[in-house]
Write a structure and sequence with these properties.
The protein is α+β, with helices and mostly antiparallel strands. The chain contains 4 helices and 13 strands. The protein has one domain: M1 Pyruvate Kinase, Domain 3.
Length: 190
Amino acid sequence: MTRKVLSVNVATARPLAAKGRTVQSAIGKRAAEGRVDMRPLGLAGDEQADLSVHGGLAKAVYAYPSEHYGFWQTVRGQARVALWDEALPFGFVGENLSITGLTEDQAWIGDVLRFPHCTLAVSEPRFPCFKFEAVMGFPQAAKLMVQSGYCGFYLSVREAGSIAAGETYELIAGPREVGVRELFQARMKR
């Protein structure tokens, strides 16, 4: 199985209309050009507006499986938010790394992703919020993330360096005690 980075995405914080108010958010990320520095607190040029939910050493980078993009495109079309053939750009769900070859049911807390010029470790699942619903354009988006389990996962930076779209990565198994999907489902049942 080929594991690959399809897009490296960054954004600066900017105003976002959500739930009848305006908040700061960097959820709408866009593809960066070329190689991007990977620092202990995340990618160069990327900001996090609310450090309680994204950012810091444990949640420096957010990875999202590209395998789920077809699902989101379909449900947005059904909610009449977008045209059926309107392809969502990578970074749309707020991820820093759009990846292929590793989904939530295959990732475990402590697994290591070794890229050619940096090393990251799976730290926890991403939990949906009202900003995700605002970007997706319909109020059931968070509920659908919970039901589908298509949450993606946060990564901590083990070895800083740089990263670029098109690079492959090696998955090195961690202790395999708690899976990303298992932890996501357990916390969402609370």
